[in-house]
């Protein structure tokens, strides 16, 4: 079913986050994985925040490097030009951790212990993955029903991270 203009979900994209959808999903999944794997092994939200930022930045740098080298080799671009292009297309990997990180810090500020704050941030991340996937379906021309299928896939990815967290802790 093809969407109609009246069915469109209009989301402002002032910073180009949605244009970098692949990076947005990758960064959000990395953030969920870090929340799942490390929360029981840190003593503070500060340590958990550093783990999230550090891991997400490492993943971003790996993608940045790969995209730069790939464009230089594949397209014959000068490495500096390739780097600028790669930054433009991959920065959302690092940026994707900011919302879950804000939820984590806010949860602690509202009195949650680090364990509870990490669960709250993880569930927020599951919600983001679900929303991004639904939005991708809608923007890709799918109707509501098929976009819900996309959203279910995104949610499932987040639930895998939640299952990992439950199994590890």
Helix content: over 70%
Give the CA-CA distance, first to last residue: 43 Å
Structural class: mainly alpha
Mean pLDDT score = 87
How would you characterize the largest beta sheet? none
* Low-pLDDT stretches: none
Percent of sequence in beta strands = under 5%
Order of helices and strands: HHHHHH
> Any idea what the radius of gyration is?
17 Å
Number of helices, counting only DSSP H or I runs of 4 residues or more: 6
Number of E-type strands: 0
Cα shape: globular
Multimeric state of these chains?
A: single chain
As for the number of domains, it is 1
Account of the 3D structure:
This protein has 169 residues and is mainly alpha-helical. The chain has one domain (20-168). It contains six helices and no strands. The protein has helices spanning 21-38, 45-75, 79-95, 98-109, 114-139, 144-168. The protein is globular, with a radius of gyration of 17 Å.
For this entry, give a set of tags.
169 residues, mainly alpha, 6 helices, globular
List the helices and strands and how they pair.
Layout: H1 21-38, H2 45-75, H3 79-95, H4 98-109, H5 114-139, H6 144-168
Give a concise summary.
This protein is mainly α and 169 residues long. The protein has helices spanning 21-38, 45-75, 79-95, 98-109, 114-139, 144-168. The longest helix is centred in the middle third of the chain and has 31 residues, at 45-75.
